[in-house]
Amino acid sequence: MTDRTAKIAVIGAGSVGATIAYAAMIRGIARQIVLYDLNRAKVTAEVLDLNHGLQFVPMAKIEGSDDIAICADADVVVITAGAKQKPGQTRMDLAGANAGICKTLLPQLLKVAPNAVYLLVTNPVDVITYIAQRISGLPPQRVFGSGTVLDSSRFRFLIAERLKVAVQSVHAYIAGEHGDSEVPLWSTASVANVPLHQWAVQGHGKLSVRDRTEIFENVKNAAYQIIAGKGATNYAVGLATGKILEAILHDEGRVLPVSSLLKDWRPLGRPDAEAIDDVCLSVPCVVNRRGVDATLAVPLNDAELAGLRASAERIREAAKSLGY
């Protein structure tokens, strides 16, 4: 199997699922892209719209159906199906309804695509990823969530904007929950190998404590702002998921902060620290054709480690409240 003979199945033809299919199509990530949704009219319309643009992108076969069989033998299954986050709702508010959808969908998908890598995008993604891991019984590297890939992109964009540098030159991660308890890893953030706390370049500013606070608040509240304005986030999450799909199907070994099952995880250089265990949250991971090939121990300061533990506890409690 090569990436150009690969098959991606996207579960859910809503704004996020359709945009992921669009991103995969225009980037030429796979030869076959299928959309599954219970709403036949919706999925048929989305597929028709996508197919009308095939002339302008790398060749692919794009299909859709309300029959789960269309996902047969997929190499990657992307699950976006779930209740939509409404203005004023947190991602955690969706946990009960979306856990139920996951519980119904996964056994059906495993029958038709038993060898796939499963990528969860449905919110609250860390809780849903943990539940999917438990239900599926698959190896942990083959079931993981989009995590804080999007949050980290927002983080880098805002830092780059303040410092007037290209976003691609900023290296910084958000860790923990994809949600209100997420943790900005300021201590290891850098631009061109210059630690951010040492950055002071004429004409390109220096981040004050206030700047950092405002940047993080904007990262954390970005989804709420977008949902209030247009009802859903879709473009950036579509592109972020496309990058994860490329990392998998192109076997890139790309480092991405996806949400995966942590086992006895400790930060770099702190072997005596209490481990974070049996919870899905985001830390930088190596992503390739196997899925999450390695979970990286990264350096954290005391505040970041405390924040990550608090985030883990929040996710763990939410999963427990649903019986997992």
Automatic annotation (TrEMBL):
NAD(+) binds at residues 12-17, 37, 42, 82-83, 98, 104, 121-123, 146. Residues 7-145 form the Lactate/malate dehydrogenase N-terminal domain. It catalyses: (S)-lactate + NAD(+) = pyruvate + NADH + H(+). Substrate binds at Q85, R91, N123, P124, V125, D126, D151, S152, S153, R154, T233. Residues 148-318 form the Lactate/malate dehydrogenase C-terminal domain. GO terms for biological process: glycolytic process; lactate metabolic process. Gene3D superfamilies: Lactate dehydrogenase/glycoside hydrolase, family 4, C-terminal, NAD(P)-binding Rossmann-like Domain. Pathway: Fermentation; pyruvate fermentation to lactate; (S)-lactate from pyruvate: step 1/1. It comes from the Bacteria. Keywords: Allosteric enzyme, Cytoplasm, NAD, Oxidoreductase, Phosphoprotein. Its main location: cytoplasm. Allosterically activated by fructose 1,6-bisphosphate (FBP). The modification Phosphotyrosine is found at Y224. Its EC number is 1.1.1.27. One of its GO terms (molecular function) is L-lactate dehydrogenase (NAD+) activity. Beta-D-fructose 1,6-bisphosphate binds at R156, H171. The active site is at H178 (proton acceptor). Homotetramer. Belongs to the LDH/MDH superfamily. LDH family. This is L-lactate dehydrogenase. The lineage of its organism: Bacteria, Pseudomonadati, Planctomycetota, Phycisphaerae, Tepidisphaerales.
